[in-house]
Design a protein that fits this description.
By secondary structure, the chain is mainly alpha-helical. The protein has helices spanning 15-47, 53-61. It has two helices and no strands.
């Protein structure tokens, strides 16, 4: 499956207004990353297989930090 990667460079000019939201967003994303990594390792250790993307997404959608992310970020 082909992968598309996009990089956007921007300059935040209202840092004081968005700082807290960006911090919360980054914190939620890092927690979900850790949950995904832990879950994937558990499945690998139990079955020797790697989860399909859909299965991992379904697992992450039940995590409380998933709701803290913007819809495009949680995809």
């Amino acid at each position: 499956m082909p992968t598309t990667r996009r990089t956007h460079v921007c300059r935040i000019q209202n840092h004081s207004q968005v700082m807290d939201a960006l911090d919360r967003h980054g914190w939620s994303a890092s927690k979900l990353w850790n949950v995904a990594l832990y879950h994937s390792r558990q499945v690998w250790n139990e079955t020797g297989e790697i989860h399909e993307e859909d299965e991992l997404k379904d697992e992450l959608k039940t995590h409380s930090k998933y709701d803290g992310l913007h819809s495009q970020s949680s995809q």
